[in-house]
Design brief:
The complex is a heterodimer of chains A (about 280) and B (about 230). Chain A has about 280 residues and is mostly helical. Chain A is built from ten helices and four strands, in the order H-H-H-H-H-H-E-H-H-E-E-H-H-E. Chain A starts with a helix and ends with a strand. The chains are: A mainly alpha (about 280), B mainly alpha (about 230). At the A-B interface, helix 1, helix 3, helix 4, helix 6 and helix 7 of A face helix 1, helix 2, helix 3, helix 5 and helix 6 of B.
């Protein structure tokens, strides 16, 4: 589905592309016949309904539980970015265009995707009240860009951990497992970028990856220590990464912890968020 | 598709000319996207097929681990060469990021080698003849292609992993590859980290099955690999 965009974009820059790669071009044009075009255009939306059709009411209860848990986290993230992007004078225009409008778009898409997959089993957003200040811990989150960036980093890194913690619970539904790990990868893309942006702004020495030396949390934001607990692990299955043959500093704790992101259980994640960022209604 | 692959390798002149116009990132992304989008799966079997030296990754969980091991070997070899011959165009910050990434990929490679033990495939010989290591543009474009490929590959095969520990570890690695992919992409074009060649309209990262991933990886491998048990 991206092929057509790619070709179109390249052709905008290089109108002679067609002459250079003529055989490929005609192959592509043939592929882009009417039928394919419709199928390709419909694919992303069809996938959601496909999941629904494939699992529908018979979605295993464990899978429904995981998806609703994911949906709760996505509601929070979407709320955070929607409010942040809408707030005047919070995010500098360039950062909004380059980064946060795109992250908001993705989080809203995740909400829609999970709602579609869950169908009538989806927990409505109205079940929750979101407090982006977390009971005042981040009281200036929507007025101070530094605070907004810090909360964003914590949310994204935690989101990556939360999805990772659920993969084994989704094995009975392979298509949903694939979708979940794919959302998880997008959260990791976000995490890397917001860490990069925060570091550019405050020059904290923060890397796009989580570097855990003395403790899991490398952000310097002490109140989110719990969100990074266990990130300093260097044992992967039976293998101690710090004892492997090294190139450069690949066997250092710094690198060994950064090279593997650690999961977080559902209970641990909810304990970090419910009662602070997320209030259960009713 | 075989013809196209040959065109790519035999038509370096045209491709280089094209790179100058479009920027290498678009071109390499294009190669990967074309591989990704091809519907002609059968043709891929010809890439490296009939070559008795082609190494199959095997089946079951060990097959998936070997598949990952092959990709990590490719990535590690690439970044080792990048760091050993840094283009003068790189900033200090970029060099630090690329050095970190090299270390991560080496750790991933060594992890799989250790986890597989005697079941590990042999060390693969890369073919980086298409990469201009003296050019920041060429290096970053290739890095982006490899990182995006790695993410699509891990996500695409995750649901086939039986062992829970390895499934979770694959998750631990893929999110780090996604972090790499985002940062590299953003170094090429600020604001590029979740573009439509990386993330679909549902907000899901693009995924790819081993058949297409292997075909793309083989473009950069002298020792060709196959994944015959994972025919998707």
């Amino acid at each position: 589905m991206n092929l057509f965009d790619v070709i179109e974009n390249i052709e905008k820059i290089d109108p002679e592309l067609g002459d250079r790669i003529n055989p490929r071009r005609s192959a592509i044009r043939n592929m882009a016949s009417f039928g394919s075009k419709v199928a390709v255009a419909a694919l992303p939306f069809a996938f959601g309904s496909l999941l629904k059709k494939a699992y529908g009411q018979t979605l295993p209860s464990g899978v429904v539980e995981v998806l609703n848990y994911a949906l709760t986290l996505e509601y929070l993230e979407a709320e955070f970015y929607n409010q942040g992007v809408a707030k005047a004078n919070l995010i500098p225009t360039a950062d909004k265009t380059n980064y946060f409008a795109k992250i908001a778009r993705d989080e809203n898409n995740h909400v829609t995707f999970l709602q579609t997959a869950l169908g009538s089993s989806a927990t409505p957003k109205s079940a929750f009240t979101f407090d982006l200040t977390a009971n005042g811990t981040f009281s200036d989150v929507l007025t101070n860009y530094d605070t907004f960036l810090k909360v964003s980093v914590a949310f994204e890194d935690t989101g990556v951990r939360a999805y990772k913690g659920q993969v084994t619970a989704l094995k009975s539904a392979p298509d949903i497992l694939t979708a979940a790990v794919s959302i998880h990868a997008v959260e990791a893309r976000h995490a890397a970028i917001v860490r990069y942006v925060l570091n550019k702004k405050l020059n904290l020495g923060l890397k796009p990856w989580i570097v855990s030396n003395t403790k899991g949390n490398d952000t310097g934001i002490a109140v989110v220590d719990g969100n990074y607990a266990g990130e300093d692990n260097v044992m992967q299955g039976p293998v101690d990464i710090t004892k492997l043959p090294a190139t450069g500093t690949s066997a250092s704790k710094t690198s060994a912890t950064a090279a593997f992101d650690e999961p977080l259980t559902k209970d641990a994640t909810l304990a970090l968020l419910v009662g602070s960022f997320i209030k259960l209604n009713g | 598709m075989k013809t196209e692959t040959n065109n790519l390798s035999n038509a370096n002149m045209a491709r280089r000319a094209f790179l100058r116009y479009a920027g290498a990132s678009t071109a390499v992304a294009g190669i990967v996207a074309m591989q990704a989008c091809s519907k002609d799966n059968s043709a891929y079997e010809d890439v490296g097929g009939g070559d008795s030296a082609t190494i199959d990754v095997g089946s079951g969980d060990p097959g998936i681990l070997n598949y990952a091991y092959a990709l990590e070997q490719l990535e590690a070899a690439f970044y080792i060469q990048v760091v050993n011959s840094f283009s003068a165009d790189f900033t200090t910050e970029e060099k630090l990021l690329l050095t970190d990434i090299r270390d991560h990929e080496v750790a991933h490679r060594e992890f799989f080698k250790a986890a597989l033990g005697s079941g590990a495939i042999k060390g693969l010989t890369p073919d980086f003849s298409k990469i201009d290591f003296s050019s920041r543009t060429s290096v970053l474009a290739t890095a982006k292609a490899f990182e995006d490929l790695g993410v699509t590959a891990y996500d695409g095969v995750a649901s086939k992993i039986q062992n829970n520990d390895y499934l979770v570890i694959a998750g631990k690695i893929v999110s780090v590859e996604a972090r790499h992919a985002a940062v590299i992409s953003n170094l090429i074009t600020p604001g590029s980290f979740v573009d439509s060649d990386q993330v679909d309209s549902n907000g899901l990262n693009i995924t790819m099955g081993p058949t297409k991933v292997v075909a793309t990886a083989n473009l950069f491998l002298k020792t060709k690999i196959s994944a015959k048990s994972f025919n998707f």
